[in-house]
Amino acid sequence: KSGKLKWGKKIMMDKNNSYELICYNTDDSGMFGEASRVVFPRDVEDVIKIVFDSQDLVPRGLGSNVVGGCVPSNSVVVDMKNMNEINFDFKSEIVCVGPGVTIKELNEKLKQINYEFPIICNGTIGGIVAMNRPGLMGGYGNIKEWIEEIEFVNGRGELTKFGKAEIGEVCGLEGITGIITKIKLKVIPLVERSASIFQSNDIEEVFVVAKRLRLEKHIVMLRFYSPYFSKLLGFPEKYHIIVGFDNQNGRIKGNDYADLFNKIRKDYYKIYEKGYRDSEDPKFLFEKLKEFVLFLNKFNVPYSGDLNLGIIYSFFNDDLKKKEVVKMIDRMNA
């Protein structure tokens, strides 16, 4: 294979009426603000002009974050969806994408040429880079590890490019250093994956098994669910680990694997439907995870986790419980 492929097109900037602005006052967090205006840049020149013309800017991708990251405060919302070009270079196996491209859109295009981007999560590339999010398959790490170059417009309206050594100046800083306009990402040949499910009533057994599974070369996913969360997903009310493989070693394959993966990629909707719309996602050394989980059990706090990355996602519908959990997180990270 040689050469390059290009997808996407540039769409002219739109304007909004007052009714349409309402859609931009919130995101999946359920928090509300007020958008003074919404703009739709189509290229870098538009972004530079917007930065020069506006004071309070809120970049927005899919609006799928749950912490109010793109809720405006009488701000100009910069909807990045029209910056959606995808350019793939076969020789370097690098894809150059606009910030408005979603992971789903990117992988639909890459699948046509038997490639994929393995950081699977909801949202646009720009938003995921700004948050430095991991995907469902924690064995592939966070998106930062897959970035070759970031292009962005800083607060002075200057177009800037950062390579791998400087990526941390943008990735994970939630947009405070500027508006991302282009990202170069590594991709991999398309993988046929499989999964198995481990369940237990014994938390000690869960972490003994998880410690061993973390050492297995071909395991790329260890999604962990509390008994309550497991029940919401349609599993028995026990602890569950969804074990994902980058080969066919798992018992769940083909369409059954696709169905399972689609179920867990929408897991947080299940917990939000029950009123648990507030969350914390601390990261610990593996040896500390059990201590934190036992603390959550004590307060009847539902949780999920990524045991590859050492992240436990705890969910709240009670401010007092959250306060106690945050105190515990601070103590454990001291």
Explain briefly what this protein structure is.
With 334 residues, the protein is of the alpha+beta class. It contains ten helices and 17 strands. It is 28% helix and 26% strand.
Would you write up a description of this structure?
The protein is an alpha+beta fold and 334 residues long. The chain is 28% helix and 26% strand. The protein has ten helices and 17 strands. It has helices at residues 18-21, 44-53, 103-111, 125-131, 203-213, 227-232, 254-265, 267-273, 286-298, 319-333, and strands spanning 4-7, 34-39, 57-60, 73-79, 86-89, 94-97, 115-116, 147-153, 159-163, 179-186, 188-189, 194-200, 219-225, 239-245, 278-280, 303-306, 311-316. Helix 9 (286-298) runs antiparallel to helix 10 (319-333). The longest helix is centred in the last third of the chain and has 15 residues, at 319-333. It starts with a strand and ends with a helix.
Question: What key phrases describe this protein's structure?
Answer:
334 residues, alpha+beta, six-stranded antiparallel β-sheet, 10 helices
Low-confidence stretches: none
Summed up, the helix count is: 10
For the biggest β-sheet, the strand order reads 1-5-6-10-8-9
From the N-terminal CA to the C-terminal CA, the straight-line distance is 52 Å
β-strand amount: 25-35%
Order of helices and strands: EHEHEEEEHEHEEEEEHEHEHHEHEEH
Number of strands: 17
**Class from helix and strand fractions:** alpha+beta
Mean pLDDT: 90
Radius of gyration: 21 Å
The 3D shape can be described as globular
Largest sheet at a glance? 6 strands, antiparallel
Helix content: 25-40%
